[in-house]
Amino acid sequence: MKKGIFLSIIGIFLVVCLAGCLVKNEKMILSPTPTSAPTATPVIETPTSAPTVTPTNSVSNEIPEPKNDIIIYSLNSDNFEKVAIPVMIDAGKITLFDLVKKITIALEDESFSVKVTNARFEKTTAIVDFSADGTPGASSPNYEASILDCIAQSIIENYESCTAVVFRIEGKEYVSSNFSFGIDEAYLIK
Question: Which among 37, 52, 117, 150 counts the fewest CB atoms within 10 Å?
Answer without folding.
Answer: 37
